[in-house]
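S., here's the first fold you wanted:
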Amino acid sequence: MSDLTALNVVELQQALSSGETTSVEVTRAHLDRIAAEDGTLGAYLHVDGEAALRRAAEVDASGAAGTGLAGIPVALKDVFVTEGVPTTSGSRILEGWRPPYSATVAQRLADAGTVLLGKTNMDEFAMGSSTENSAYRPTRNPWDHDRIPGGSSGGSSAAVAGRLAPVALGTDTGGSIRQPAAVTGLVGHKPTYGSVSRYGLIAFSSSLDQAGPMARTVLDAALVHEVIGGHDPRDSTSIDAPVPTVVEAARRGAGGDLAGLRVGVVRELGGDGAREGYDAGVLERVAEAVALLEGAGAEVREVSCPSFGLALPAYYLIAPSEASSNLARFEGMRFGLRVGDDGSRDIDEVMALTREQGFGPEVKRRIILGTYALSAGYYDAYYGQAQKVRTLINRDFLAAFDDVDVLVSPTSPTVAWPIGARVDDPLAMYAADLCTLPASLAGVPAISVPCGLSEGLPVGLQVMAPALADDRCYRVAAAVEAALGAPLTDRLGERAA
């Protein structure tokens, strides 16, 4: 049959269930493509082809292939601990570590019969917007190899957009699923905080981190979300509530009927009140997508959320503060890298040398920033004030959702930029998260769906909904996808051919 790597999850399900192909054949096709393309893209940090093919053969032998996600290859961002599989979080300080257990989401995917292709590259400890902060190598955008694939889940976005995996998991702390999805033409969803388990996710910022799917279609993302979501007693922040009906919502939205749905265009996120820093082409594609929503029957109005403009400084106090605490566990004593332990140094010297060599510049920058913000005499002025801003952002969301059902904005203010262009300008790098940060700080669900090209590069529309209303995100995103026709990544495949 045709190239198996060009098929999305739903198409692979059909091919597997009909007997047209096998999980082994699908897995081998993706491994072959990884071998051919990943030397350029740098999407993966670890691939074990033999283990993947063994797993695929087991699924085929069970007769389950094509049922749900059984037999479908997946890729995991290297921030999810995976039993016996090297897990580094993109950092030298964890080089060679093989965890003794698996993250809940990784285990749920395995229990569903998926085949793990490998672990994807990422900004070290998920700190970055370009995957240039990986301690191992940068990842490149399949649309233009001289441009970034977004971050911190850039390895996952490049793998799926480049057809090196049908679907992948990423994590989103301030936009790290949605922004890379936007700049590589994918669907990426950040679920409601607490609705997908964080157990086994190497923590960056515990009040913000959330796992979610990255896929070529809205329905593919929903199918994965349905498997990984739900309560987990091992995660103290896990919400004991049913998984929203995301698959049903995606299918309903694909019908294109949004009659009665109220859509709010956020004035402060690229609306009429805030356009500085936004690419004109991005704003044009987003406006066209909003017009498509209106054509599908939605009621569109502008909504003001004045505190959203404070999300960037608030986030870059809260997240580094939590990171400075979370990363204290990496001291070179219990696991991972250990430097200078030759018997001539005491424990404090070994820990200092290990952290000096094991952590990269961006991680050190954020640890220092967070430690300062939490220090005596500065806590109230910085961290305390940032938490107050977080409350104001929550209030803006609550007020907006009294008036509309969903909010929309660009996902990223710009298309993918050239590799190296922002490495020496942290503030410019951080600005890539302008649109995604409010939903992260409030813990509400948000999805990025492709809405066209600008300068030949993908643009994403962000859809935000109230907490636990993830199904609304999928419904609206599916309506945009249906109105635009074939998935945007199909154009990338055509161009490559």
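And the second, which I think is the more interesting of the pair:
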Amino acid sequence: MPEKLREIYGRLFSAYGPQGWWPGETPFEVAVGAILTQATNWRNAARAIANLKAARALSPEAMGRLPHTRLTELVRPAGFFNQKAKRLRAFLELIRKYGGLDKLFALPVEELREALLSVPGIGPETADSIVLYAVGKPVFVVDAYTRRILVRLGLIEGGETYEELRDLFESNLPRDPELYKEYHALFVRHGKEHCRVRPHCKGCPISELCDFEKDK
């Protein structure tokens, strides 16, 4: 498995190059982006973040001072704005509970994951995106693209849990956050360009490894 995962990574990196994820000027902005991008695309989340920047509300203290109605107005472009405003409020409460963002993010990886998962509306993918991209600690982010690509490559059956898929990468690759960031971003890029719901197999850089392509 380690050799297979390294080969997949090498082919994707050769095809697409470095992806430069996750956009954000501060760890707090990256964390907010991870919450806002739930159930929407990055373009919409970026519009909401631009609104927060314009309102000078992209710090825990400044966001905490916003009335709830104002916060919902600012994050409206991200969709589900009432839910996401509540999630941001809950995230702010978590930060306060631990005495500040720096202290929260200084927690050991598993303790930090547990703390984030205790926030209503933050699931494993969002929590791990925050841990990896905002904090820079080594957890592998699993998303729908990851699962789809691995199924088509014949590496998983498809019914595995999130934690089983996370362990697949973390137990077979070095515990390197930069590698995990790039690998996850490459999966997203590949899922959008080739391994779509209706796959576009022509020119796929990993087609030689793919059971789906062989079965066509």
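Why I say that: The chain has a mean pLDDT of 95. The CA atoms of residues 15 and 148 lie 19 Å apart.

Talk tomorrow,
H.
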